[in-house]
């Protein structure tokens, strides 16, 4: 059993104050021999945490899930989701535990979650553990995305467990400490919509507004305004992915963050040779989440979010549908504008001209025809301009 720790962290757990049907309360499952592999000192300080305390033996025990810090309310979150187009009414945190929330030095509330922390009621016969390789990959890629200025979850620590996990073969186990603006997903809304739980939908929407979009509270239609804000963030996010050649790999609705962050780094990668059909997931045999499909999948996911909001938009179903559809139509122009603005920057176009989009498109077609490296092509253009 996980032991309580005397170490106090400044948690304030707003999600754990929601009704019990939003989550399951349980501690992480302890591991045999935790060892700190990497601690993100800069992020720790940004969160108002002392890196030396986190790196201490007791701190590592907390990061491994062997102890629970005072003030923590560990929970596994409930959610549903469309996975490769098929709906699963119950998914949830099958191998993650939300330790709690802290308010960082900028006054922003941030989740601190352990990933690979053992089985939960949502594990669906899984072991609840994570292998070392995926943990290190998520640490590296999420921090790379942060440095690139792309909204993302962050990685606070990676801890080896001293225990094996079994996948196709025996692999070393690890636990990742993930930091996010929140872990609320489109699938969180779908969980309650699938159960016809209007009260929970309203509570969740109000929680999201208070936490992420307080500016919409005074709008005549706050839930419609919430939908439009989520659309705007997703449009910007996917444009930023394309601008660095990033392929998420599993753009399921349970991996679509309501806060507009890149979340759940699985079979993701940055493209080398430019090919719009590039896929990195071994199970994505139809190319659903290919590089060029990401701007089409995002509004599909957002449409599923809009469906959950319909009873909050209006008692009149037709009126609610009309409002949601009108809002959804804003995705494409927002995405196109963000993508073109980013391409102008990459091409060094400091003034906007009518032919900019065609110029960028011609370059991308030439890159595809010649299998040019995505990143190096733009780097060489920068060198030539210098």
Salient structural properties:
386 residues, alpha+beta, six-stranded antiparallel β-sheet, 12 helices, 14 strands, globular
Write the layout of secondary structure elements.
Layout lengths: L2 E6 L14 E3 L9 E5 L1 H6 L4 H5 L1 H8 L2 E4 L4 E3 L3 E3 L2 E3 L7 E8 L5 E7 L14 E2 H16 L6 E13 L3 E11 L5 H8 L4 H15 L9 H22 L2 E2 L21 E2 L23 H20 L3 H12 L2 H17 L8 H15 L3 H12 L1
Parallel strand pairs: 1-4
Antiparallel strand pairs: 2-5, 3-11, 6-7, 8-9, 9-12, 10-12, 11-12, 13-14
Brief overview:
The chain has 386 residues and is an alpha+beta fold.
Describe the protein in words.
It is a single chain. The protein has helices at residues 41-46, 51-55, 57-64, 132-147, 186-193, 198-212, 222-243, 294-313, 317-328, 331-347, 356-370, 374-385, and strands at 3-8, 23-25, 35-39, 67-70, 75-77, 81-83, 86-88, 96-103, 109-115, 130-131, 154-166, 170-180, 246-247, 269-270. By secondary structure, the chain is an alpha+beta fold. It has 2 domains: 3-180, no CATH class; 186-338, no CATH class. The strands form 5 sheets. Strands 3, 8, 9, 10, 11 and 12 form a 6-stranded antiparallel sheet that branches. A hairpin with a 3-residue loop joins strand 11 and strand 12. Helix 7 (222-243) packs parallel to helix 9 (317-328) and helix 7 (222-243) runs parallel beside helix 10. The radius of gyration is 21 Å and the shape is globular. The chain starts with a strand and ends with a helix. The model has no long low-confidence stretch (mean pLDDT 96).
């Amino acid at each position: 059993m996980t032991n309580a720790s005397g170490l106090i962290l400044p948690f304030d757990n707003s999600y754990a104050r929601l009704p019990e049907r939003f989550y399951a309360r349980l501690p992480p499952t302890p591991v045999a021999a935790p060892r700190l592999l990497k601690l993100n000192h800069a992020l720790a300080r940004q969160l108002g945490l002392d890196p030396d305390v986190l790196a201490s033996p007791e701190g590592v025990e907390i990061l491994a899930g062997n102890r629970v810090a005072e003030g923590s309310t560990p929970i596994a979150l409930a959610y549903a989701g469309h996975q490769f187009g098929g709906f699963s009414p119950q998914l949830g945190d099958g191998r993650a535990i939300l330790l709690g929330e802290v308010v960082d030095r900028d006054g922003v509330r941030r989740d601190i979650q352990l990933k690979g922390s053992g089985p939960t009621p949502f594990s669906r016969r899984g072991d609840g553990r994570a292998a070392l390789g995926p943990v290190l990959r998520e640490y590296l890629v999420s921090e790379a995305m942060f440095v690139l200025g792309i909204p993302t979850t962050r990685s606070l620590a990676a801890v080896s467990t001293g225990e094996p996990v079994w996948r196709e073969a025996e692999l070393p186990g690890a636990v990742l400490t993930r930091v996010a603006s929140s872990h609320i997903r489109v699938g969180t809304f779908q969980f309650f919509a699938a159960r016809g739980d209007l009260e929970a939908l309203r509570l969740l929407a109000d929680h999201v507004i208070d936490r992420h979009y307080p500016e919409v509270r005074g709008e005549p239609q706050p839930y419609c305004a919430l939908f439009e804000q989520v659309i705007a963030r997703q449009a910007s996010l996917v444009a930023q992915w394309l601008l660095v050649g990033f392929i998420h790999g599993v753009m399921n609705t349970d991996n679509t963050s309501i806060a507009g962050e890149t979340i759940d780094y699985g079979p993701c990668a940055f493209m080398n040779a430019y090919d719009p059909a590039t896929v990195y997931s071994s199970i994505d045999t139809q190319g659903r989440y290919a590089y060029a499909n990401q701007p089409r999948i995002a509004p599909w996911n957002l449409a599923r979010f809009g469906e959950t909001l319909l009873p909050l938009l209006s008692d009149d179903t037709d009126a609610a549908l009309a409002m949601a559809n009108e809002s959804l139509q804003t995705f494409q122009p927002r995405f196109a504008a963000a993508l073109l603005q980013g391409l102008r920057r990459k091409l060094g176009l400091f003034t906007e001209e009518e032919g900019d989009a065609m110029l960028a498109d011609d370059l991308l077609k030439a890159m595809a025809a010649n299998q040019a490296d995505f990143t190096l092509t733009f780097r060489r253009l920068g060198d030539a301009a210098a």
